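User: Can you predict the 3D structure for this chain?
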Amino acid sequence: KSCQKPVDKYIEYDPVIILINAVLCKAQAYRHILFNTKINIHGKLCVFCLLCEAYLRWLQLQDSSQNTDPDDLIRYAKEWDFYRMFGIASLEQTSFFIGIFITLWWMAPEMLKRKSDFILLLKALLLSTYGKLLLIPAVIWEHDYTPLCLAFIKVFVLISNSQAIRVTLNLNRILPWFAIFFGLIFENGVVCLFQKMGWDV
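Assistant: Here is the predicted structure, written as structure tokens:
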């Protein structure tokens, strides 16, 4: 009833075409994936995306403190910096999602009445972070434009998040972007709070 059509046209489409349309952020493709398929990879995808982000941060941290001594490199590989970066990435993503949920619950409480609504929205948000997988080729094909590529990946993930919120709750375009904006503010606020507490975040 949310798409006002007699049938989902993507039922007859090849999965590759559905994936291409999802990458193009088409609302119908998102609706098909969220409501008419039985994808159960939300948690695995989330952990894998966080590992990619943690690896990128760890690599940048390693580049900033390069040492030619091989013994030091071995010692560095054994340190817990990678796990710390994973924890920071997890904290930031959790804060971002909490900011989105608070905003949507405050602006449109009728949309999130039941626990199942929260779970569906969380699954949609986790699936829509698949753009972070593009961090892998950005790291492999390292070049002078890497910061620009990372900025484009961030924008792509935010657009995907917006479409996921819009399709899941059947909203217009403005409220999802407002929720994402508040989620970013909440995420940066939590990071600043931990930095003021003396944590190396």
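The CA atoms of residues 69 and 75 lie 10 Å apart. The chain is about 70% helix and 0% strand.
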